[in-house]
Design a protein that fits this description.
This protein is of the alpha/beta class and 706 residues long. It starts with a helix and ends with a helix.
Length: 706
């Protein structure tokens, strides 16, 4: 027998369905068969423990759907509790005993006064029946009605998102299943609350039966005096009623907690939601503290109690102000950094930052993360993209004092940094005149100063960067350069989803003619040339106008640029003036005649002399631009613009190339010079050795136009 019981206990966790079935069978058995007193105490303890567990689960679920089994739990626990009540009633009437828990509980509540115990029982029962059970029943009824009424609209919304490409078929099925589950939950809760309400009514009936039956049996069968009968059976009856009503009360609170829960995207659990929302306004906390102080001076009111409560509210308002005070940018950034503590491998993130082991201890990680979060926000606000989380991790393979930035698992930045030195951002003459020792790196043209001189630099007003700030600037440069890598199909769907809230018809029209991968390609091409996509409405309007007529993505991007010409000119203008070097028509003809078609797309093939002459003029434009001065743009025709831009980019020249269609009438174009090839270089034939010609062709196929 012992072995059978041991095997059953081992297998029970793996067969929860068997446990539920046995629990129901046990409840039915308790209704018709006598139960020993020892077993009654065990079952009462189990009933109390189950009720407490259900309440704790209800407090910590994020959404009601996380506890969708509650209606069934209410049914099973109610049947079990009623069966337990029948078993204890049999013991009270047949043997005048109901176990130590009931006796102890009744004696404790009555405390020598039967009337007090009886009143406490009535109060508990009325609270459960009139307040909790009735209120939860009404909320469940309304929630079920509203949920069922809203179900067709929610299903239509899911279908619309599926048609627009915002979600895939798997996500659509998941959302439909969630909607169906939600409607079933609230419908079942509406019916399950009837069990809770009926349980409270049954408690009142049972106490009357136990009192009348026990008194009759005691007087007629056991020869007890009326006082003895009244005390003994009242104690057992009230103890039994309360030990049954308290789990029922906990179950009512559990059901009410679930049906009254209002969840959202940021919901965690009920306790967290309540605390966050009660302490969200520091003004409300301070006003409540002031009212409590005033109430404390009302004659007869306990002043210390009100002063303590006021102090608690005031302290909470100060703590809230320090964390989320208005204008506290660093605190907001720190809050946005907090999720980055998730244990996600850095290698799986689109952008990751790695430090040598020596740097992880020498540089403040929290400060570095805050600076990275700040530059991420700047890039996001400037370009209109969502910058993903950038984790900071240690790389044991990195040499001492080196850092590395990876984009999609590929290293794009790796350099050396001294964590004990500051980087000067001011003019070199200022540091020389201040007398502060420094080190000038001629190769990188950087000036380094020991961190111990930071107070002297601040006193002299000399600009400088801490190591964490310098690293964040490198991240900023990487984000700007590789912004196109951060926009894919998923990000484009999210962008369209946000736009659909205000421009539903526009998004629908664009998706009718333009698939999402094509939209993503256009966005990447814009970002590749530093054109922000935060004015998404302009992008979508241009796509809606041209996408059906132009299938070539490169040319489609040119038309989108034309729709954003005001934004493009503003990006390169100073006080409404755009300085520009204009490519002459003869030079445009040379570039145009050097474009070759292939299966992979058109590409540019210039002769060696033409390439060198064009590069020489572009480098001269760059060198003639003083530091801090607005860099001029290169202006040319739309059909050759992208080929010129690709040619410059491949040769390491960062100059914006605009077409005449990119110019807005709101801005003035100030010619700064012209770009032209010398006479005799207008031949379309290739020059130079075969190897050089092949190299030019190879370079042209990658970025010129495909």
């Amino acid at each position: 027998m012992a072995n059978v019981l041991r095997n059953f206990i081992k297998r029970a966790p793996a067969n929860p369905d068997l446990m539920v079935a046995l629990m129901l069978l046990l409840a039915i058995a308790m209704m018709v068969m006598p139960v020993p007193v020892v077993a009654i105490d065990t079952l009462i303890g189990f009933n109390m423990g189950l009720a407490i567990l259900l309440l704790m689960v209800a407090l910590y679920v994020s959404t009601p759907l996380d506890f969708s089994s509650l209606p069934g739990v209410i049914l099973i626990s109610t049947v079990f509790r009623l069966a337990l009540t029948i078993a204890t009633t049999r013991l009270i009437l047949a043997e005048g005993e109901a176990g130590s828990i009931i006796h102890t509980f009744g004696d404790f509540v009555i405390s020598g006064n039967i009337v007090v115990g009886f009143v406490i029982f009535l109060v508990v029962t009325m609270v459960q029946f009139m307040v909790l059970a009735k209120g939860a029943e009404r909320v469940a009824e309304v929630a079920a009605r509203f949920t069922l009424d809203a179900l067709p609209g929610k299903q239509m919304a899911v279908d619309a998102e599926l048609r627009n490409g915002h979600i895939d078929a798997n996500e659509s099925r998941r959302r439909r299943a969630a909607l169906e589950k939600e409607s079933q939950l609230y419908g079942a809760m509406d019916g399950a609350m009837k069990f809770v309400k009926g349980d409270a009514i049954a408690g009142l009936v049972v106490i009357c039966i136990n009192m009348l039956g026990g008194t009759s049996i005691g007087l007629l069968s056991k020869g007890m005096s009326f006082g003895e009968v009244l005390h003994h059976y009242t104690l057992l009856t009230i103890g039994d009623a309360l030990i049954s009503q308290i789990p029922a009360l906990l179950l009512s609170i559990t059901a009410a907690t679930i049906v009254t829960r209002v969840t959202g995207a940021a919901s965690l659990n009920l306790g967290t939601d309540i605390v966050n929302q009660l302490t969200a306004s520091k003004r409300a906390l301070r006003l409540a503290a002031c009212v409590l102080v005033v109430m404390g001076f009302v004659p007869g009111f306990p002043l210390p109690v009100f002063l303590i409560l006021a102090a608690v509210f005031a302290t909470a308002s100060l703590a809230k102000g320090n964390v989320l005070g208005a204008g506290n940018v660093d605190a907001k950034i720190a809050a946005s950094v907090e999720p980055q503590k998730e244990n996600v491998p850095a290698e799986t993130c689109p952008i990751a930052f790695f430090l040598a082991p020596s740097l992880t201890h020498a540089i403040d990680q929290v400060e570095l993360q805050q600076h990275i979060a700040r530059v991420s926000q700047l890039v996001s606000a400037d370009l209109g993209i969502i910058v993903p989380r950038i984790p900071i991790a240690a790389d044991q393979q990195l040499p001492e004092s080196q850092f590395r930035i990876d984009v999609e698992g590929v290293p794009v930045e790796q350099d050396l940094i001294n964590p004990t030195q500051l980087t000067l951002t001011d003019d070199l003459a200022n540091i020389e005149s201040s007398g502060i020792p420094f080190r000038h790196d001629a190769e990188t043209d950087r000036v380094w100063v020991e961190q111990s001189h930071a107070p002297a630099l601040n006193a002299a007003g000399i600009g400088h960067h801490r190591p964490s700030e310098l690293l964040a600037l490198r991240v900023h440069a990487t984000l700007t350069r590789y912004a196109p890598r951060l926009v894919g199909i998923q990000e484009t769907r999210q962008l369209l989803g946000r736009m659909e809230r205000e421009y539903a018809d526009l998004v629908k029209e664009v998706l009718r003619t333009t698939p999402i991968p094509r939209i993503a390609d256009v966005l990447r091409r814009l970002l590749d040339e530093g054109i922000p996509i935060r004015n998404t409405r302009l992008v979508l309007e241009a796509l809606a106008e041209w996408s059906e007529r132009e299938q070539n993505v490169a040319l489609l991007t040119e038309y989108v640029r034309s729709g954003m010409k005001r934004q493009i000119c503003h990006r390169y203008a100073t006080h409404g003036i755009v300085p520009a070097f204009i490519i002459e028509r003869e030079t445009e003809d040379v570039v145009r005649s050097a474009v070759r078609d292939s299966a992979a797309g058109p590409y540019l093939v210039l002769e060696d002399r033409q390439s060198e002459a064009l590069l020489s003029q572009m480098r001269q434009i760059l060198s003639s631009t003083a530091p801090g001065q607005t860099r001029p743009v290169v202006l040319t025709s739309m059909d050759v613009r992208r080929f010129v831009r690709g040619f410059l980019t491949r040769n390491g020249i960062d100059l914006a190339v605009l077409s005449y269609q990119d110019l807005a009438s709101d801005f003035t174009i100030q010619p700064a010079g012209s770009v032209k090839l010398p006479l005799g270089m207008n031949s379309g034939t290739l020059g130079g050795s075969p190897t050089i010609r092949a190299a030019h062709q190879l370079k042209g196929t990658a970025l010129d136009e495909s």
